[in-house]
Amino acid sequence: GGVKSTVKDWFVAPALASLKQELLQVMDAQLFEHTLLMAQLHFDSAYRRQRQGKGKGKETGKETAAMTVQHLLAVIVYCNLAALRSAFQATYIRNNDQSQESDDELRKRHSAWAHLARTLKQLVHEHGSALGGAGDSLYVAMPFVGVTHSLFRFAGATSLTSSMLVAYNYATLNVDVDDDEEMVLLQLDGGGGGDSSSSIRLFDCAWLSDLSAEREKLLLGGHGMDHDECVVELSQLWPLSTTMTTTAQNVWLHVLAFRVLCVAFGEVNAAWSSTKLDPLQIAKRVKKMVKRTLDGFAGHAQPHLFGRKLKKHKRKQKRQNEDAAGNGGGSNDDDNKDVVTQMFSRFVTQQREMTLFWLSEATAQHWPWMAELQRFMRASMFCVELGDKRTWLKLDLLCLMFVELRKLTVVDCALSVDILNEIEAFLRKLKVDPDEKRGRRNSNAAATAATAATAELENAKSLARDESVSDADKLFSLDINVDALIGDLKSEKSHISFHDSNFDDFCDYRVCKITEIAILESLQSQSTEQHHAFESAITANILRKYNTKYKKVGWEITQGKVFHNANGFIIRKIGS
Fold this sequence. Notes:
Number of helices: 22
Helix content: 40-55%
Structural class: alpha+beta
Distance between the termini: 11 Å
Number of strands: 15
Low-confidence stretches: 54-61, 223-227, 330-336, 493-499, 527-532
Radius of gyration: 31 Å
Largest sheet: 5 strands, mixed
Strand content: 5-15%
Mean pLDDT: 79
């Protein structure tokens, strides 16, 4: 609750006078003096003078701040004092015991370590090295349930290792054989080359750590003192638990499929290179795995539309598994799909905000490798073609699947009356009680059937009394198409029906937590030279008309800042 904090609000003033006072919170004076002496000895070493001396920044070319004894003291205590490191890292995240911890309370906790945070961050950015190169990756072991995104965003102090062996040993030593928790080893990298890797700064702690063989690397925020996070991408995953069903040779494929799904639903790193490889072109099986995963989630979200396809696939997969088991083999595709589904299900429940680029031409110009993914999503069940030949999102499916989604931003989508009507229909769904709808439908159907039956009975009695009317004429008088009836019997059709998807839609859209839909009509119009190139079709009169309509269901539509301070339309739930 309260006013949302801005970036500048997170520059926390220290609660204590110095770094020494902060460290004395968890260590006695004797240990502090001993550690300070160690920092001084490392500072006077030839290695420090040769490798960590004052120089020019790799990106800015400006003189960097000189390394001091205080910098080395901060790293030594961070690496070697577990209690201090735990207390310090905890101030970057909200207290688990206080789920309602406010921004002010979090800042207050962090202020107790503000000197240490500032010293470490300055050291990482002034004297760290950039992550880059094909062989320059980071490794970490964690429970499989912790893999919720394809991009890992580190805002606080984080320790990783450049040694795969160290991460593997850590994982295996920390696996409880009596626990069903699945451990995985992750490989992380800059994710695409170009400027993405150079924005990630690492400080090599090995020469200051008591356990130098761990090859510990310290990350602390993005490049530059004004950036609050660094982003690395999941590039490989190895299962370390026997409960994992997938085979090692197929892990790379389902990691790639998971990354495609995350990117499709807005998990994008702005620093990605334009020359990044197209994930859908790397392996043909990836597109198939992605489609199957989306079919499964759509079938569970809207069974009246996609449930039949889900059941058909399950029957087919069951037959394939039985055939494979009979031949002594297994189903790798099913294993891969299962792992992708597990990871994507956690991603789905984590998303609170989403920015979609499926309809954006400018995105494909900026990142050419994304064009195929955009085409894939526009042809999927998440989009619909309207009468004016425009493509729009199926908001009902999207918000049912991502049930925790609060804010949706659609980039580069020109609004039309048809789209505004689709949005209005969705907003009305959010207030419908499916049980009441089912009851009304059953009542109406029963009343209609009773009326029709009574009328047909009376008509049949009247015809039966009239012996001069032939049997065929009786059928015609009952409004039955004899030729069509005979054709259906010959074709062995069991029934004829017209299916309206809304008729069988008993999904409870009231569970959706969406409160805002923001639409930026044109990215191109935001550039200086093309600022007047785009003219919206939504006039002031149309805006007022639909604002009146939306208010009837508790929403409103206005114009305002949507994406990177660009103007657009905002449909917001009143009171949110």
